Amino acid sequence: MNVRPAVFGALGLLCVVGLTLVAWQRRELAELRQPSARPAPPRSTPASPEPETSTSSALSEAEKLELARLRGEVTRLRKQQRELGSVRAQHDRLRAQAGATAAQPPPAGIVLPAGYLRRSEAKMAGFATPDAALETFLWAIEQRDTNVLFQVVTLEGVKRLRESFAREGTEEFFQRLGVVPGVLVTNRVTHTDGSVELGVQFVPGEEGSAIRVRQMGGHWWVEM
Questions:
Q1: Strands of the sheet with 209-216, listed across from one edge
Q2: From CA 204, how far away is CA 185, in angstroms rounded?
Q3: Percent of the chain's residues with pLDDT above 70
Q4: What angle do CA 92, 98, 100 make, to 5 degrees?
Q5: Is the pLDDT of residue 11 over 70?
Q6: pLDDT class for 179, splitting at 50, 70, 90?
Q7: Which positions ≥6 away from 136 have C-beta within 8 Å?
Q8: 218 belongs to a structural domain
C-alpha cells in the first residue's frame, strides 16, 4: 500500500485548518483593535429619585404644638421688648427733666424750710454724728468722691456701690444720684441696737424716705 498520498492529504488538510484558524484570529484581533466600530451597548438611564412624600416632611402633633408654643413665646418677647423700650425712653426723659430741675436754683420767693441742706452747700463734715455722716454722704455725691463715699457707708453698702459701678459705670452712678437737690431731716428714731433711722425729704413737701445710720467705734456709717 502506498502511504505517501495519504500523508500528503493529511498534511494538506492540516494546512487548510491552520490557515483558517489564522485568518479567524486576525479578524478577531482587527475587531478588538477597532472598538469604535462596534455599536456601544445602550446605557441604562438611572432612575430619577422619587419625590419625597409629604409623609416624611410632615410634623407630628407634638411637634406642631411645640412650634405653636415657640411662635407664641417669640411674639410675647417682642411685645415685652417694645414695652421695655418705651419705659426706658420715659425713664431717661424723666431723669433728664429731674436733673435740669435740680441744677436750677429755686424760683424767687420760694423759701426752703429751716434745716434743709442743699447738695451744693454740703461739706465734708466727718463721721462723728448721724447728721455729720449724712452731710458727708451728700458731699461725696456732689464731689463724686468714691474714697469718701466708701468711708461713710457700711461694708454692705460698699459692696453694693462696687456692683453699681461695675454695672452702670461710676460717672453714670453719680449722674443718677445727682438729681437729688438736697436733704431735710424731718424726724429720727433710735433703735434698740443703737442704730438711728432718719426720716428725710429730698424735695421739701414731697413724700419722705428713711435712711438708717449705725455707729461702730465712734464712726457713724450710712446704710445703703
A1: 117-118, 182-190, 196-201, 209-216, 219-222
A2: 10
A3: 60
A4: 105
A5: no
A6: confident
A7: 122, 123, 124, 125, 126, 127, 148, 152
A8: yes
The amino acid present at 93, given as its one-letter code, is R
Distance between CA atoms of residues 124 and 136, nearest Å: 5
Range of the domain at 170: 117-222
Mean pLDDT, the chain, rounded, equals 75
Residue reference for cell 498520498:
5
Q: What is the CATH number of the domain that holds 213?
A: 3.10.450
188, 185, 174, 182: which is closest to 202 by C-alpha? 182
Element (H, E) at 185: strand 182-190
Would you state the torsion angle of the CA atoms of residues 45, 46, 51, 55, taken in this order, to the nearest 10 degrees? 140
Q: Other CB atoms closer than 10 Å to residue 147's CB: what's the count? A: 7
**Is pTM, for the whole model, over 0.90?**
no
* Euclidean distance between CA atoms 161 and 149, whole angstroms: 9
Q: Is residue 32 part of a domain?
A: no
DSSP code at position 127: S
Q: How many domains does the chain have?
A: 1
Does the residue 173 lie in any domain?
yes
> Quick one: cell of 43?
446605557
Domain contains 187: yes
Local structure of 74: helix, strand or coil: helix
